[in-house]
Amino acid sequence: MLTIEPVTAADFPDLLALNDHSVPHVNAIDETQIARFLGQALAFFQMREDNKLAGFIIALGVGADYDSPNYAWFSEHAENFLYIDRIMVHPDFRRRGVARLMYAELTWRAQELGCTRLCCEVNLLPPNPSSLALHQQLGFTQVGTQKTTQGTKEVALLIKELSD
């Protein structure tokens, strides 16, 4: 049975291994960076089944101390948001609804925090069509694009308005 669990420093090796496996769809991070996320994220949780990592999500609120061009774009163009920095599902758990369950939990938490929208980006270059399709199915709308990393990456900037 899948369970939603908080993240602790003891979970970092599993999370970092999954993150590394998910590059280039997410940026590589190290233990210092993931610890910093743990300290400032408004939502940082994982899903596990029989103690095996199924996936995790990290989301930051407005005003976070985070040096990301995509977070900066949303800070300039959106209000009252929860920014999904990364969501990933372990390959063994794909196509089992894990991402949808994490998004349902994140939506509930965002609404509890009084956030009115979820924001994220999905890679267009290199392409990540399955993630883009999932986000569209979940009600995210593309509101722009942005090139980063000296033009080697391009992302679709997505927003999902949350109902009361």
Description of the molecule:
This protein has helices at 12-22, 31-40, 69-77, 98-112, 129-137, and strands at residues 3-6, 43-49, 52-61, 81-89, 117-125, 141-148, 153-161. The chain contains five helices and seven strands. Helix content is 33%, strand content 34%. The model has no long low-confidence stretch (mean pLDDT 96). By secondary structure, the protein is of the alpha+beta class. It has one domain (3-161): Aminopeptidase (3-Layer(aba) Sandwich), CATH 3.40.630.30. The longest helix has 15 residues, at 98-112.
Question: Summed up, what is this model?
Answer:
33% of the residues lie in helices and 34% in strands.
> What's the arrangement of strands in the largest beta sheet?
1-2-3-4-5-7-6
Gap from first CA to last CA: 30 Å
- What proportion of the residues is helical, as a percent range? 25-40%
Q: Return the CATH topology.
A: Aminopeptidase
Task: Tell me the number of helical segments per DSSP (H or I, 4 or more residues long).
Answer: 5
Query: How many structural domains?
Result: 1
* Class from helix and strand fractions: alpha+beta
CATH superfamily: Gcn5-related N-acetyltransferase (GNAT)
Low-confidence stretches: none
- Determine and state the CATH class: Alpha Beta
Residue share in β-strands: 25-35%
Question: Could you state the order of secondary-structure elements as H and E?
Answer: EHHEEHEHEHEE
Cα radius of gyration in angstroms: 15 Å
The number of E-state strands comes to 7
Largest sheet, in brief, is:
7 strands, mixed
> Overall 3D geometry?
globular
Overall mean pLDDT stands at 96
Would you identify the CATH architecture?
3-Layer(aba) Sandwich
